[in-house]
Write a structure and sequence with these properties.
This protein has 309 residues and is an alpha/beta fold. The protein has helices spanning 9-21, 24-31, 35-49, 65-89, 103-110, 115-118, 134-137, 170-175, 181-186, 202-208, 225-233, 247-252, 279-290, and strands at residues 54-57, 60-63, 96-101, 125-130, 142-147, 154-167, 189-192, 218-222, 239-242, 261-274, 305-308. Strands 3, 4, 5, 6, 9, 10 and 11 form a seven-stranded mixed sheet that branches.
Length: 309
């Protein structure tokens, strides 16, 4: 970024105060300088820019068009500068805990569970990083991530295992009745094209449920789980719902289970801390583990099918 042509700050500050207060005299009082000093600096700024910034009347001033344009930019710039210097000069003495979660946890599970933690008097400042990059997730004090619970150098506690089942909007089910898994294969399926091998897709789910996956009618494939669920909420088809991620949608009726068939795997979501972590990260990890709701499995219609992956 080139700063050539930028007027000196000691000229911009008196200009901003004069424009905001509508008076050289009031600007001088605010800046604890003389009125003539403010007036001279504004004159100097006009000379540097080669334009008139104020219309000067008896006992009042008014911005010209060029002055108004400059004021709009200078006001925002000085506000940002003031905020930045204020943050530096007033350091926060509270400790910081870095929490990293993937996009599914961040968008569908975590936030409602943080209210109790944030009400604690001894709470640290929470730096929340949302990413699907494993390297980013593990570069934090506390991580919530999907896998088998084995990450070298970390202590992991299972939050909940994978339990995956079809979900769709009630309106979609009304228009496209699904009574069994054969109907499900012919329905409009919303699939997950995810870079992590251990996430479930329709091909894996149907195979584990005993259905020929090659016949699946996939109409949308996305690399983002939240987008997949939003597509199902919008009535675009049937998505794969993870227990604990879609529980609230099922409770309020935004989503329904078209068939009562679910697949369980050996994978799940874990909260992890580095080995030898300090008490504050351990306390946050413990809080998240304790916050898992032991809700009953979602119910649908049809025969219950379970498979272990």
């Amino acid at each position: 970024m080139s700063l050539r042509g930028l007027p000196p700050l000691d000229l911009l500050v008196p200009f901003e105060a004069s424009a905001r207060l509508g008076s050289f005299t009031r600007a001088a009082a605010e800046l604890s300088v003389t009125q003539s000093a403010v007036s001279q600096r504004v004159r100097r700024l006009e000379e540097v820019l080669g334009t008139v910034l104020f219309e000067r009347h008896h006992r009042r001033i008014a911005l010209t068009g060029e002055g108004q344009e400059l004021y709009n930019g200078v006001k925002v710039a000085l506000q940002h500068l003031s905020a930045a210097t204020g943050n530096i000069s007033r350091p926060n003495d509270r400790p910081v805990v870095r929490l990293a979660v993937d996009t599914s946890i961040g968008g569908l599970w975590l936030l409602p569970r943080l209210s109790g933690y944030l009400q604690r008097e001894d709470r640290p400042v929470l730096h929340l990083n949302v990413s699907d990059d494993p390297d980013v997730l593990l570069d934090a004090d506390v991580s919530v991530l999907h896998g088998d619970g084995t990450w070298p150098g970390f202590e992991a506690t299972l939050l909940f295992p994978d339990e995956v089942f079809p979900v769709c909007a009630p309106g979609y089910l009304e228009q496209h009745p699904i009574e069994n898994l054969s109907d499900l294969v012919r329905a409009d399926l919303i699939d997950l094209d995810y870079k992590q091998w251990h996430w479930m897709t329709w091909g894996i789910w149907l195979t584990e449920a005993g259905v020929e996956a090659a016949d699946a009618n996939v109409v949308i494939c996305t690399n983002d789980y939240l987008t997949m669920i939003n597509a199902a909420r919008a009535g675009l088809g049937v998505a794969l719902g993870w227990r604990h991620f879609v529980d609230e949608d099922l409770r309020i009726g935004g989503l329904v289970c078209p068939v009562d068939a679910r697949v369980r795997t050996q994978m799940g979501y874990y909260v992890a801390c580095r080995q030898g972590a300090q008490p504050l990260p351990r306390a946050l990890a413990g809080y998240l583990a304790d916050s898992v709701e032991r809700s009953p499995a979602p119910q649908g219609s049809g025969a219950d099918r379970q498979a272990e992956l």
